[in-house]
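USER:
Try writing one entry.

ASSISTANT:
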Amino acid sequence: MTKMTKKVALERAIACLREVDGQVETVEKLESMLAQVEKEASRERKAGPKALAKQAEQEAFERRVFELVQTAEEPVTAKALAEKCEVSPQKVSPVLTKLVKAGEVKREVVKGKAVFTA
């Protein structure tokens, strides 16, 4: 039995709907979706080990920033986190935004500066 992937599901749905009258638009839409799934899969295959290594590195950096916020005794600024990670605040800022949106970190403004707490 083959694994049910998006591609397999779309191919099966297209095959079934081709046999039904009046489903031309639906088949066309599903074929478009199938082409998009194949395009994304091709892009992922081309990414290769370098892209995967870079992604793993970014995920490790995000975990480090989160751990620093969690273990901080006081609310911490992006600049302070950047100094601890030895990177620019511009590299830390999108990570903090992502963590805030995920609800893992809270953002407050104290004396005109954004500070973060876990």
Notes: The helical segments are 6-18, 24-71, 78-85, 89-101. The chain has a mean pLDDT of 89.
